[in-house]
Design goal:
alpha/beta, 326 residues, 17 strands, single chain
Length: 326
């Protein structure tokens, strides 16, 4: 059966393999192959592979020493990996138990299997989990060369957003000042800092800020990262006119924080504004809201608008990269 593979020139193969491995995207169940000067690297979760890589589907040899969950079941289960935790989303308890047993029996490097038990809820954006196998919800996740310690039960983190985070990270330049208004455990501010930016991350969740600070130390960027616990509307005053780049990844209610974002912006700043809107007009509400708050003080230019993912039937999670020039 054809499997998704990243195709790169053979001379670029090792760099691509290392980058995909850092992001836990290399498929351990299939062999890497070479043909006609190209290297084919089998991958899992192809929708999270960085956009600059070409994805093709082709027959590649299975690793004879690897047993995958699908080998033990009569179907191919859907799951996500986050460090050494595997996340499933099963409503049927019997099917969930069967999937968990197959994952733990397989050759995946896994310590725990958890099942989503609620939606993300509350101001601190956490959800409930059912532990199906193993023990605990704390792990270390690796993404594009960074390590993030986190506890799924205490903080919000989505591995599905790895490609979008990397897209934004690659825009950051040495010496920038970047402000993440809803920073979580640091998946934006940590790689920003690794690229040479001075970064500030704010979050109302005290556990998230503790992990952010730990992750700054873990990735050797503590000197360029400031973590602040609190409502960004109340703590951002000392950073007025400070930021070259502002991340607003709170898509259900980012519009409520736009006045603070504009106050943070310096004379020439980019806002990465995340939103959830109906597919008939996914970008218009966000752009109109930004223009209204910016008023006559800034020229507003939408540099990028793109769909991050489908959120619900007829609803899209989108992002606008907006430049404010005073």
């Amino acid at each position: 059966m054809p499997v998704p593979c990243v195709r790169v020139p053979r001379e670029d193969g090792e760099a691509a393999r290392e980058r995909l491995a850092d992001a836990d995207l290399v498929d351990p169940g299939h062999e890497i192959t070479v043909e006609s000067g190209s290297l084919f690297i089998p991958v899992i979760a192809p929708d999270t592979v960085p956009a600059e890589y070409e994805i093709v589907h082709r027959e590649v040899p299975a690793r004879e020493t690897q047993t995958m969950p699908a080998d033990l079941l009569k179907f191919d289960p859907s799951y996500e990996r986050l460090g050494e935790i595997v996340i499933v989303d099963e409503d049927d308890p019997e099917r969930a138990r069967e999937v968990a047993e197959s994952i733990m029996t397989s050759d995946l490097p896994v310590e725990t299997v958890v099942n989503r038990a609620s939606k993300v809820k509350g101001q601190q954006r956490v959800r409930e989990w059912g532990v199906l196998a193993g023990d605990g919800t704390e792990t270390v996740h690796r993404e594009h060369g960074c390590e993030f310690a986190l506890d799924l039960a205490a903080v919000y983190f989505s591995p599905r957003l790895a490609t979008e985070r990397h897209r934004v990270v690659e825009q950051v330049r040495q010496g920038e000042r970047a402000f993440d208004m809803f920073a979580g455990v640091g998946p934006f501010v940590i790689p920003f800092a690794k690229r040479g930016a001075t970064t500030v991350g704010v979050d109302v969740n005290p556990d998230a800020i503790e992990y952010l600070r730990e992750n700054a130390r873990r990735n050797d960027v503590a000197g360029r990262v400031t973590g602040i616990e609190g409502d960004v509307r109340e703590v951002a005053g000392e950073y007025a006119d400070w930021a070259d780049r502002i991340v607003m990844n709170l898509p259900h209610s980012a519009d409520e924080f736009l006045e603070t974002a504009v106050n943070l912006a310096n004379d020439d700043a980019v806002i990465h504004y995340y939103d959830i809107q109906h597919e008939d007009d996914p970008y218009g509400p966000g752009e109109r809201a930004i223009r209204e708050v910016a008023g006559d003080e800034y020229d507003v230019v939408v540099e990028t608008q793109r769909t991050v993912r489908s959120y619900a039937p007829h609803e899209l999670n989108v992002v606008l990269d907006v430049r404010l020039s005073r």
